[in-house]
Design goal:
8 helices, five-stranded antiparallel β-sheet, 287 residues
Length: 287
């Protein structure tokens, strides 16, 4: 009659190979659990990141819409049928609440700036001197600006202008047409980055040929003072008698978190225009 080994006796223990297999299986299970935990952590972190990104995009979109609303509100108030309710141009900044956003709106008269496409070489020379250029350099650059836009009192032929630019190592020539953008002024012969940076804040492509002395910014006013006939061209109250006015509307919106958005619109307001106004430019960010 056969006998079996008592429980717990060495012969009933797992063999070495069986123990090795069990240990290997346990190791696989542990590593699998670690991998699963890592994947769960990664997915959770990614999910939180994507949620934050989505929330930021949503907040920025809300701020952008609020900035657009600030522009629309300004236009509405500029068109008020009651003069005493219209927002004054060049007045204090307005603080609006649109949804969850705070919107600061400023109105500026474009006629307070110099339009390099229409300004005379004499006015451009005076402005260049007002921003710090020496008289000789100011005169030369004012002449080249006149050549660029085609209003020079001493026009040159296209071949002569091309030769001048080529001799300066430039592969282009003046088009003899108004500037398409203010940045194009930087391409004018003799213009340096320093001079352009000094001029830029005082320029617009939407103003008249001659700025309004009564509303001109200090630098433009200093330039006009060098040309008495321009400084005396307008009288107090003349701007209010004009049929239209071109206004720069700047709206800066601050929303939830760090959401920010800026809009700048150039709008012409006048009774002769369709709906009483025309939007000339609309862009993101303050220029």
């Amino acid at each position: 009659m056969g006998s079996s080994a008592p429980a717990g006796s060495p012969s009933s223990w797992p063999s070495r190979s069986e123990r090795r297999s069990a240990g290997f299986a346990l190791l696989i299970v542990l590593w699998t659990l670690v991998l699963i935990a890592f994947l769960v952590l990664h997915l959770t972190t990614s999910g939180h990141t994507e949620i934050r990104i989505a929330n930021n995009l949503d907040a920025n979109a809300v701020a952008s819409a609020a900035a657009d609303g600030g522009i629309a509100t300004a236009i509405y108030n500029l068109l008020s049928p009651r003069p005493d309710e219209r927002w004054p141009v060049d007045g204090p900044a307005r603080l609006l609440t649109i949804g969850d956003c705070r919107v600061t709106v400023r109105l500026e008269n474009e006629a307070a700036l110099v339009n390099p496409s229409l300004a005379s070489p004499a006015l451009m020379e005076a402005l260049l001197r007002a921003v710090g250029s020496d008289p000789d350099n100011a005169h030369r650059i004012a002449e080249t600006i006149g050549d660029w836009v085609g209003n020079s009192p001493k026009p040159k032929t296209a071949d002569v202008l091309k030769a001048e630019y080529q001799s300066a190592g430039l592969d282009y020539a003046p088009p003899g047409a108004p500037f398409e953008t203010i940045d194009e002024l930087a391409r004018v012969l003799g213009m340096t980055p320093e001079i352009y940076a000094a001029l830029r804040p005082h320029l617009t492509l939407y103003g008249p040929a001659e700025p309004e002395p009564t509303t001109a910014d200090p630098v433009v006013a200093a330039a006009l003072a060098q040309i008495p006939q321009l400084a005396q061209a307008a009288t107090p109250g003349a701007a209010a008698q004009q049929d239209s006015i071109t206004v720069r509307i700047v709206a800066n919106a601050a929303g939830l978190g760090n959401a920010r958005a800026s809009r700048t619109a150039i709008v012409r307001i006048g009774s002769s225009l369709p709906q009483g106004y025309a939007v000339l430019a609309w862009r993101n960010s303050l220029d």
